Amino acid sequence: xxxxxxxxxxxxxxxxxxxxxxxxxxxxxxxxxxxxxxxxxxxxxxxxxxxxxxxxxxxxxxxxxxxxxxxxxxxxxxxxxxxxxxxxxxxxxxxxxxxxxxxxxxxxxxxxxxxxxxxxxxxxxxxxxxxxxxxxxxxxxxx
Length: 143
Hints:
By secondary structure, the chain is mainly α. It is built from five helices and no strands. The longest helix is centred in the middle third of the chain and has 19 residues, at 53-71.
């Protein structure tokens, strides 16, 4: 992966499908689009080492241009953890709860709110066909 301070030459984004001119991004900017371009170019270079670098650069340029055309002007949220990681984490939370961990222990371990932990436990139990947690058994903080 290329660092943000790589010495890539400036590139000009193409005009969007709505005819809106995209702004020029050069290597002095440390923006999301430049980082996206660097990451994509690095990945393409690794996956297609025999492809000329100018071709890979054009692909990365067009991809960033398409991202601007599709999402320009909007606020985007990129989750820290991909969905497959979340599924694994949620299964770990359920397994820890079933093994006797308390809600406060799970909150501290996974850095989630108690409400979120409770929701994940209930969803996990339901998915496994288990009965909901009984109210009398929900507070394990004394353990």
